[in-house]
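Aim 2 progress update. The chain analyzed this quarter is reproduced below.
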Amino acid sequence: MLDDAKAIWQAGVDAAKPHELVADALRNPTLAQTLDNASRILVAGAGKAGASMAVAVESMLSDKLSKLEGLINVPDDPPFETKKITLHGARPVGSNHPTQEGVAGSEQILSLLSNAGPDDVALCLISGGGSALLPAPVEGVSLEDKQEVTRLLHGCGATINEMNCVRKHLSRVKGGRLAQAFSGRSLVSLIISDVIGDPLDVIASGPTAADSSTFSDAWEVLERHAILDETPESIRRYLQNGIDGNQPETLKSIPETVTNLVLGNNQRSLKAAAAKAESLGYQVLNLGSFIEGETSQVAIALAGIVRSIIRDGLPITPPVCLLSGGETTVTLSSEAGKGGRNQETVLACLLQMAKEETNRDWLILSGGTDGEDGPTDAAGAFADSQTLSRAESMSLNPHDFLARNDAYHFFEPLDCLLKTGLTWTNVMDVRVMLIR
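Predicted structure tokens:
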């Protein structure tokens, strides 16, 4: 079953691979004509898929390389070579925090677009992880202060929408400001979404999209999660000045010269995973890409569906592949260990499945399509009907590991970590639950 689960998950990842997604977009006759007429094609952007997107652009525009120029902020050491588009390492692998190298790259991108000629066209490559990879703090706020508020938001279980709301209001790039830097000229953003529902203003904090959130919304996020007092004073002061009307709001409307195209998303990956599962002989129940909330609670619900299938054959009879996507959050304990939301999902599901005595085989696999799950070297984890007895034989108490958010160290000795390396794309998570 593990081979089946990995193949199904991989089919979802493959459906989000940037090359074909970008190639299809660049074949559009209108966009092709726009690029043909451009004096220069300036390529900018950021994200976990940025490097592979840039390679696809150079491949598709090989007859226009003399007009290409650009820079993409990406995770360090991408295994790709480009000729005209600089792949700027903006953060280490396994980290999701903004860095000074990211700031340097963002400054170059802003300079490139701000100094463009009237007949230049901008091609922005945007994907998940772009918020952390494209830092450009507003005046008066240091990178260290932005790093601290990002850490606080991660630690309190804030959603990606909430985190991006705050980060947009502390940035010279996000919230439509990158588009503003290229004002009056044609700009096309090619986007791979890592956000539920694909809202343009949330993906990578919307550098080329209009933003509906306000300074007041950002302030309320910090209040709601009770981290306002811990937030650096410079950030509180800047947000308060914004609320008082003394700082410009994020961009509220995008000109007709700007086009945003969503090329790939979690829904597309789940569809591909479903097709693979069917080819392997499973009936598929696809719960969709809108799964969010506290990880442990989502896991209880998912395990409940599996138990219903096993015991009552409802809502579908085995052999079954239960698929779900989206992205959950983890509220860390005071003594948090090591792990990520996918590893925690599998561990919490495992505890629920322990309540079900059955002769049926089942397996749960959950992984981030980017190949990263929290600050670890794993994309996620997997467990089956034998995992709990194996853990008991090794004196591993799953309750203890879950209580301290330490799923990595529970699954590591069991050899149940899903390790894929970076996939160079990102469309949230794919969970595969098999029942025979």
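The chain has a mean pLDDT of 95. The longest strand covers residues 68-75. These observations will guide the mutagenesis experiments scheduled for the next reporting period.
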